[in-house]
Amino acid sequence: MAQEGAAEPLRSPGTGNTWPGGRSSPTWTGLPTNLPDSVLDAGWNERTDDTPNDRHWKGQRLALLILLALIGVLVVAMTIRALADTPRIAAQWRIDSLGRIELAASSDPALGAHIGQALTGVMGPGDAVALPDTLALQRTPRWVVQDADRERQQATQLLLVNALASQSVRLFFADGSKLQLQPAPRGLAALPVATWLLGGIALALYMMAVLVVLRSASARNLVYAAMALCQAGNLLLMAAEIALEFGLPVPLLRWGMPLHMAFDLFTAAAMVTATCLHPRRLPGSGWIALCAWGAAIVLVAMFSAGALPSAWWWIQITVILVGGVGIGLLSWSYQIEPHPFAIVLRQFGIVTTTTWALLTIALAASDGLRSVPHNIADTGAAIWYVYLAALLLLVPFLARSQNVLREFALLAAVGTVAISLYLLFVAVFTLGQLPALTLSLFVSLGVYSAVRQWILSQLIGSSVLTTERMFEQLYRIAREVEARPERVPTLLSQLLSDLFEPLEVKVGDLRTRRSRVAGDGSSMLIPVPVLGGEESTPTQSILIRFAQRGRRLFTAEDARLTDRVVEQLRRAVHFDKAVEQGRHEERLRIAQDLHDDIGARLLTLMYKAQSPEMEDYVRHTLQDLKTLTRGLAASNHQLSHAAAEWKSDLSHRLTAAHVELKWVFEFDVDILLTVVHWSALTRILRELVSNAIAHSQAQQLEIDFRLLNDRLELTITDDGVGQDPHAWSHGLGLGGVRKRVKQLGGEVEWREVQPQGIRCRVVIRDLSARWQL
Amino acid sequence: MAVRVLIVEDNPVARSFLTRVVKESFSDALTITEAGDLESARRQIGPLGNVAAVADPFKLILVDLELPDGNGMELLAELGQYPATKIVTTLYSDDDHLFPALQCGADGYLLKEDRFEVLVEELQKIVRGQPPLSPAIARRLLTHFRSGSSGSGVVTTDPIPLSTGFQSSRPVPMGRGAPLDHERLTPRESEVLTYLSKGFTIKEIASLMGIKWFTVNDHIKSIYKKLNVSSRAEAAVLASKQGLV
Fold this sequence. Notes:
The structure holds two protein chains of two kinds. Chain A is an alpha+beta fold. Chain A has helices at residues 52-85, 109-112, 147-165, 193-215, 219-243, 250-277, 285-304, 311-336, 340-366, 375-394, 403-428, 433-459, 467-483, 488-500, 547-550, 556-607, 612-633, 639-656, 675-695, 732-743; strands spanning 87-88, 91-95, 101-106, 118-123, 128-130, 169-173, 178-181, 184-185, 504-508, 516-518, 523-527, 541-545, 636-638, 660-667, 672-674, 700-708, 711-718, 746-752, 758-764. In chain A, 57% of the residues lie in helices and 12% in strands. In chain A, strands 2, 3, 4, 5, 6 and 7 form a six-stranded antiparallel sheet that branches. Chain A is rod-shaped, with a radius of gyration of 43 Å. Chain B has two domains: 3-128, Rossmann fold (3-Layer(aba) Sandwich), CATH 3.40.50; 135-244, Arc Repressor Mutant, subunit A, CATH 1.10.10. Chain B has ten helices and seven strands.
């Protein structure tokens, strides 16, 4: 098998590929064989430029595509044309209660007289054909269980064809009446709807195969194309078979069975090969694929040579076994790498294989029972093939939500189940037709809702995060982002992790304009928004892989949701900023007013003070006002800056009072003091120093400020005449100190020191504990 | 001949208080002129066209920042070439208010809520050439000169936060183009500023640097002058802006 990328070295893996239609979408079929461990390689970048070589190839591909599409349409059209030209008896037949072929309706007035009669034979110019049972109504030899029956059916059909090809046939009815008829071509308009439908689906599958291969002829794409083409062939054969009641054309009779068989077995083999290659290449994948293909080819060859007894059983069981192997391989693949795609494929694989097995059992059980209409086998099988075709059409778009197609596939699967169950109920439990039909419908509807839920949970997933929690988190992040814009990637990653529970989250320097699903739904790439600042292109992206711990695929809806979440985050940050700006302006205005009006009045009052005590009192008030207004206006103060001002201010005042200052200031982290801390500490220091100046008559004041391990210890020691601090009456000043220390969650005490003086000690254990006061 | 002093202050109580401070500070004969707003101050000063021609200029001018008809900085900016010691008297002690005033050419500042004796002492110091320099202003100066000397022609468009008033320690990028010699600080001056920004007193700085305290003072004076020269043009713009606010 050709190595991926060898044919087209310029192609970058994964997301860079484009469909011929120009859409850039990561698909199942476009993935590199080995997803690199470091997924943040250049390949994830959006490709912006096409090399001329590439464009050339694109043009060629387009021409090729049109050519192949024309061929496909031509083949289907010719088949339908041939069907329309095949001579037939213009009548519809059904099976009566005795298991005979009964005339149901006819547009021919001559035949109309015989409606309700059972057909017992047909006579052409040559042989007469006896129709003892309904085998002749079963159109395809593929779904005849017994070899003997199949041979008989083929022989009957051959005779019927010859009879119908002649100018006139005679029909014999059970009541002994005869009728001479001229078989005639029916024309396009009279072809049954099912023929058109199956032909259409076959064409769609063929086109899908062509598109996928033209996009890139990698091993996995070829395998996919093989499956799609086989199924397209199957469907086309069925389209032909379903159009003809009696008398399959000779080529169909001769080649129908081997072709069906080959298509089925090759599809199964290709399926195993696909699971070996995707979502990741499994060890020994070459051998496994070889075995599968070998078995398929041997079986087909043996049957063609007539050396395969009980061919039907061989096909059915081989397909079931191969399906089981595929499911096993997918489980293994998931253990190696938790790619959710493996799980989704496995679920579809289980549904497919189970319905196939059910169909097999039902047909085997009902075989030979007169009461069971034979042609229902055709219908059941046809529905199963339609299901498979829908699935094949769906697979390349699993990550984009193709709801309609998915529902259609599931409904088709359930249709198969319903028919199988109906056959089983009739055959095994010998129920009447009506109860069997009702019961099977009920059961299959139940199965449908269960399976639908089971499969959708992988694609859509239960909402892990309630909306409420997400909003809460969104606004929390918005606030945090405002304070620390550099943490956007980390915070957003956190939010996305909670939202999708991915196994891997990475931040890389990749540019993408909007969130997109990549690597087939296993990954999603989200641009890190530039929050707060001016609108600009994001330069970073977050890559999350394997949603819900690798149990779910990312879908296009997830990408849209993420984009909306990011947009909401942007708005929240914007809003918070505006609010903060408004608050800041408001505070500034209040501060300005306080300072200008009250400050000027206090100043006047101070100048007019009657006594020095009064003057000092007003001065302190004025200083407190200034601290207050400054606290209102400023947001944060760096500890070292605040300390410099404290020292400068205090030494200024102490020098004026002829007191010497000894200043020790130590800290391990230069923290940002909040306004609360800053103003509280400023006022504590000022009050204690004022107190010392006013009462102690000290020569020297020692201030020791330490902030180590978030523990603040402030001691102010004077060598003055103060004594017995416990007996002090705590007026406004010292009371204020106590209040503020308590506000910060600390303790304050005054003690006498030797030989003389007072030491005030303030301890705050966890300074940052009340950070957000 | 008496030394002429102009006090521009709208509050009459504060005006008389400052008059007392000025009278207490100097032993010379003084003629103190008072003005309640910018307009009367300008009238008192007279035409500024040819300063040298003014017969008897004011030797000392005290200007309040908040005046009924504008900001004192406007007057300071207009008085760029006026040969007087210009002192800002204000209630605002934060660098956001004081720094622009110093840029406008103030030779020092007095905080109006200080005690009478402190004010007298400070005023004497300023007139002697020992202007005060708070840690916050020192920090602003460092940023100012650093961005000036490392400017390398990058024009920053950050608005200068004059209208936001109280915010402290926000760097004001003033650097425009390559700095001239007189716009650059000497290493010693930088050192002095760094110490000042950390809250050291002049005496402490002198002992730390192993120089005399008056040498430290000379450095501070020189820094004032450089600030004044380097930002005179911008200060004029600033002042007019401030006046509009």
